[in-house]
Structures are given as structure tokens and as C-alpha cells.
Task: inverse folding
């Protein structure tokens, strides 16, 4: 088999197996990190981080192990962890704020009596 036949069997249009999944993983990782800063977007950040990790895994299974896949994997992992931390902090802050508002409401009610 010569080089031409090997090249044509791999795809003459330049498609590399797993490259699309690696690129999708990179995009999802970037969006996942950006979603931290939008309050309830942290939920979306966790979801996109998980999907990005799955896409990076699929790219690796397809044999594509380039820097794009690695960057997508790392950003998706950071997005997942950061989104989970941001979500926990958001719930914590909202619970404290709610308890402060409810205690303030009780205080003002009892002070009028």
C-alpha cells in the first residue's frame, strides 16, 4: 500500500476523527467557565462542564489527543468544579439573605406591638 491509498482511506477531505468532539469540548469548557459569573448560570456551568468532559473523552476514544482536546478537558473540569463551588456559594448566600430578611420582618412586627 502506498501513501496515496493510506491517505485516501483516512479521508481525503482533511477530517480527523475526534477533532470535532475536541473542538466542542473546548467551546463548552470556555462557556462553562464564563457561566460562573451569572448567578444561576452556575447550574448551566455544571451541566456544560459534564458535557465537555464527555466530549473530550469521546475525542480521546476516537484517537485524537491534541492540545485542543487537552484544553477542552481542563477547561471543562475547571468549569465543572468552579460551577459547583459557585452554586454552593449562591445557595449559601441566598439562605443567609433570606434568614436576615425574615428576621428583620419579625423584628419590625414585634417593635410595633
Result:
Amino acid at each position: 500500500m502506498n501513501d496515496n491509498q493510506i491517505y485516501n482511506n483516512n479521508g481525503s477531505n482533511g477530517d480527523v476523527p475526534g477533532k470535532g468532539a475536541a473542538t466542542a469540548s473546548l467551546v463548552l469548557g470556555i462557556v462553562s467557565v464564563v457561566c460562573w459569573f451569572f448567578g444561576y448560570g452556575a447550574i448551566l456551568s455544571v451541566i456544560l462542564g459534564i458535557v465537555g468532559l464527555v466530549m473530550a473523552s469521546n475525542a480521546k476514544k476516537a484517537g485524537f489527543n491534541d492540545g485542543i482536546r487537552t484544553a477542552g478537558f481542563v477547561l471543562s473540569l475547571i468549569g465543572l468544579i468552579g460551577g459547583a463551588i459557585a452554586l454552593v456559594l449562591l445557595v449559601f448566600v441566598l439562605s443567609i439573605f433570606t434568614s436576615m430578611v425574615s428576621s428583620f420582618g419579625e423584628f419590625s412586627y414585634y417593635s410595633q406591638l
Residues 19-111 form one domain. Residues 31 and 45 are 7 Å apart (CA to CA). The mean pLDDT is 84.
